[in-house]
Amino acid sequence: QAAIWVGLGGTKRNSELEQIGTTVDCELGKAKYRGVYQMENRPGWGSAKKLKEQQYPVKPGDQMRAAVSYYKSTDANGKSIGNYDLILRNETRNWYFRSPQKGSTKMSAHNTAEWIVEAPTVASADKVLPLTNFKKVKLFDCTTNGKPISSWLNRKIELTEPTETLQGNRHKAIPSGLSGNGKEFTVV
After folding, report:
1. Are 82 and 107 within 8 A, CB to CB?
2. Phi, psi at residue 175, to the nearest 5°?
3. Which of 94-98, 126-130, 169-173 is the least confident region?
4. Distance CA 114, CA 143 (A)
5. What is the pLDDT of residues 86-105, one digit of tens each?
6. Is residue 13 exposed (0-12), middle (13-18) or buried (19+ Cβ within 10 Å)?
7. DSSP secondary structure string, 104-130?
8. Which residues pair with 181 in a beta bridge?
9. Residue 10 belongs to what H/E stretch?
């Protein structure tokens, strides 16, 4: 299994996170590729929502674009809330998905923007699934508020898995440094 997504927020455990991207799961011994989106830690949301495979097909090697946009608005009582657009586009297969979402009254921190390649987590069991050997994922045109990642304080984090011994961790997903334009990197 692997999840490749972009998102806003989610800096603390149980904080709100708005995210959209793709996953690959193993079902009955066969790889299943899907678009997914989630408003994590929101009442009534539960697990990530999967896009319909027939309407929004995803295959290995497809070039995808994903975005999460935030804009302020007010609720019926005049209280400030945030709204979101979660967008996923498959440029290879020529489809576009947009999901406008109402914000909660407990607004996301919005102090992070993330581009992630990771092993999915089964929330109900608080367990990280094994990460598939995805070889290499290239993330490109990574911007926040129109500026490249390099314009912001950025930090790369390597996904590791504890080993059976206490001699350290095995690397699982390793991000490269940023490209010269400050908007691209790969994860192997």
Report:
1. yes
2. -80, 145
3. 169-173
4. 10
5. 999 999 999 999 999 887 65
6. exposed
7. PSS------EEEEEE--EETTTTEEPP
8. none
9. none
